[in-house]
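Folding Problem: From Residues to Backbone Shape
Fields: amino acid sequence; protein backbone structure tokens
RECORD BEGINS BELOW THIS LINE
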Amino acid sequence: MTAPTYRFLSLGAGVQSTTLLLLAVHGTIPRFDAAIFADTRWEPRPVYRHLHHLTSIAAQAGIDVVRIGTGDIRADALDPAHRFASMPLFTLGPNGERGMARRQCTSEYKIKPIKAEVRRRLGHPHPRRVPAGVVAEMAIGISVDEVHRARDADVGYMRNVFPLLDLGWRRTDCLSFLARHGLADTPKSSCVGCPFHDDAFWFALREHSPQEWADAVAFDHAIRDGSARANADGHPLRGQFFLHRQRVPLDQVVLRPRSRPGDTPGCGPWTCPHDASTTGHGLGEVA
């Protein structure tokens, strides 16, 4: 007897995953048992407003939008008692060496909790073994122009599927589809304090979201000498951390926003556009 297949959506709340949810609501693709949003608790306010709207839309088709997570990434980074999941912060060494810390935040705050939720819904939470044949399909919003990001799942109880590839849709097709259905303002998903933001993002945050800008500036100041836990343990950073690539305090950066070359994707659990640049070297903590 074949075990049932559960269908989930990895909902980053950006353009592609929003498109998949709407396609399921309209019956263009099979409905999902649940759309899973991994919440770092530090997304920009427009993302949370959009997620609230999507929750109402999905409910009309009987699709649960589930918010899960492993903590508050901002608070955790500043908590001396919490292990720091490395963010891709820009580093400046004592002799002017420029680098970037390794990125673990996506794995810790997005992928890991999604896998835990899938296991729970399959009825086999960790550390219980998932029996052979018990499989969940995980729909991921990767379009034709990002096909190089499509990868198989790294666990046996999940099978990644890519409905936008099956439809032959590009990101521009998704944007047009969302515009026709009143969702042209779908935001990009990313943490407020993500070091990968460009000057256009930082400028807009400063000009239009002063509270979030102040929050990012305060965080940038707080992480200058490394993680709170390492410093509390007497293991200071060999150098300094920064949110901005210029490696100066965020509120001192001369922002030069440039027009973006078309729409660019945000950061989803399996679809971060900066995957290729997250294996760089950083600064070691003094042991």
